[in-house]
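Annex B. Sample input.
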Amino acid sequence: MGLVLRNLLKLYSDFRFEVDLEVRPGELLALLGPSGCGKTTTLRTVAGFIAPDRGEILMGGRRVDGLPPHRRGIGIVFQDYALFPHLSVEDNVGFGPRMQRWDAERTAARVEELLALVSLAGYGRRKVTRLSGGEQQRVALARALAPNPRLLLLDEPLSALDAKLRQGLRGEIRRVQRELGITTVYVTHDQEEALALGDRIAVMRGGRIEQVDTPRALYRRPASLFVASFLGQANLIPARAPGREGGQVTVDTPVGRFRVDITGGGREGCGDAAGAANGATRPEEVPNGGNSEEELTLFFRPESCELEASEGSAGDIAGRRSPAGLNRVRAVVRRIEYLGSRQLLEVESRGVHLTLDLPGRDAFAIGEELVFSVPPERCCLLAR
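Annex B, continued. Sample output.
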């Protein structure tokens, strides 16, 4: 069962919420964005707790925006769990079915089935106040699933837990969601969580959807400066495009001249048709020759940087060198974060600070000079 939000509008005195969104049947859509961007408003509107000023909410092709919350067939897991502290685990999980007047035998069977599904078999008679935070979250998930909802909404369900427990529980949530095949909207401000869980990610900003795509495509082909900088780490350099040659554009930047592949032929490319459809710079928008005053931004990820063996070598450590010195940057190491298998280097080139994500096997020193390159297919141009 899919979910469609069509021309949805809610006006507040200081905030305009305006969303169009489609969640495909059986997928987990992660709703990602900074605090106050409208993520929870989206969930509460879908659930029926907020009435929109305009628009339609369709579930399985049927409008539900006129229905009260309890008739929409939606399961919700809140950030603070919202369990009933005076009830046992099995009574919490069985609350929904009892409200729907299931008989005792069917309710008991459903409770037992779900406790096994969330790895809490044998916990039924325990008080929820005696459980750990992770166990309470599993109970909240089982309770939301108990009445066989058509749609599952999760509002930052792991934000109150420590990092290690969050990582384990997000895997459990994904396993349960896939086993049941239930359409799910998962609200989070955690980028790693969204990338790990979502079949697709919708990035929100200021009450609107900025971009919707798969985690891989969204990370590699951001459609705007906001998406590029919000999702993961990014190197963003002011650029102007003096010319175009075939499927590549040459741009001038403060750190040197770069060639950018705008055909999307490379696996890492972000200037392809998919990116263009979402608002990235399209090939036909890039100047075809001569000088251009259009202000662009050159984008590439820190892990796309390839360290060269030395300034005077015949090629970099991968056996390649960008032609005519293009896409090569000479820089000085200013800061080092050693993370074991990898390390982050903050480097400076002509007053511009950039980040390199390199394997942890090589040793560097503050003040050391190095040269790195970025393949054209791993570069992207965005409107500034």
